[in-house]
Specification:
The complex is a heterodimer of chains A (114) and B (117). By secondary structure, chain A is mainly β. Helix content of chain A is 0%, strand content 64%. Chain A has strands spanning 3-7, 10-14, 19-26, 30-38, 45-51, 56-59, 62-67, 72-77, 86-96, 99-104, 108-113. Chain B has strands at residues 5-7, 10-13, 19-24, 31-37, 44-50, 53-56, 65-68, 75-79, 88-95, 107-108, 112-116. Classes of the chains: A mainly beta (114), B mainly beta (117).
């Protein structure tokens, strides 16, 4: 069954600290993996996208890793800011005849406190 | 590059009323998706178009929801009649992906927040 699981469900950290969010998937055939940041009531905004051959990608203070063998990805946030408070969603794309399908994780809710 | 445009931004209606949402995808994006996101949950795919054809509408409650994408560009999603449980954010996304193309450009709009009272 094609699934994407994220952990933890929620996380509270102090401003300036680092944190790592996890994403495990059982999606086949794998096409790519994306991390999105979603503020409450807004649409998801892309942070990173990685294909099978990429194992790390950075976007400012966000660094995503991908281990295609173990089917795991992580999103590391460095020197967190109050504005990082949001939900972070892992989305895995799979190829299907004629198109692509996107499998969503349920997200990790991050709260950064001053 | 302009993003995916959605309107209205917010909508409050009474149950049993009708409502329509509009989406204008990124220019040239062949694939368009409508999602329903209930508070605290991940987005759930309602319908996927490729150009003006439906690829997947298996999770669309067809007794009350309908969607169309005339001319393979803009799309509208309609709910008639609305129920309390339809309160959610309705997201539109578009992408360049179709068979033979590199899979990239999957972008979301800001969403329409619907409250049914």
């Amino acid at each position: 069954k094609n699934q994407v699981e994220q952990s933890p469900q929620s996380l509270i950290i102090l401003e300036g600290k680092n944190c790592t969010l996890q994403c495990n998937y059982t999606v086949s055939p794998f096409s790519n993996l994306r991390w999105y940041k979603q503020d409450t009531g807004r649409g998801p905004v892309s942070l990173t996208i990685m294909t099978f051959s990429e194992n790390t990608k950075s976007n400012g203070r966000y660094t995503a890793t991908l281990d295609a063998d173990t089917k795991q990805s992580s999103l590391h946030i460095t020197a967190s800011q109050l504005s990082d408070s949001a939900s972070y969603i892992c989305v895995v794309s799979r190829r299907t005849p004629g198109t692509y399908k996107y499998i969503f994780g349920t997200g990790t809710r991050l709260k950064v406190l001053a | 590059e302009a993003g995916v445009a959605q309107s209205p931004r917010y909508k409050i209606i009474e149950k049993r009323q009708s409502v329509a949402f509009w989406c204008n995808p990124i220019s040239g994006h062949a694939t368009l998706y409508w999602y329903q996101q209930i508070l605290g949950q991940g987005p759930k795919l309602l319908i996927q178009f490729q150009n003006n054809g439906v690829v997947d509408d298996s999770q669309l409650p067809k007794d009350r929801f309908s969607a169309e994408r005339l001319k393979g560009v803009d799309s509208t999603l309609k709910i008639q009649p609305a129920k309390l449980e339809d309160s959610a954010v309705y997201l539109c996304a578009s992408s360049l992906a179709w068979p033979g193309q590199t899979n990239y450009g999957y972008t979301f709009g800001s969403g329409t927040r619907l409250t049914v009272v």
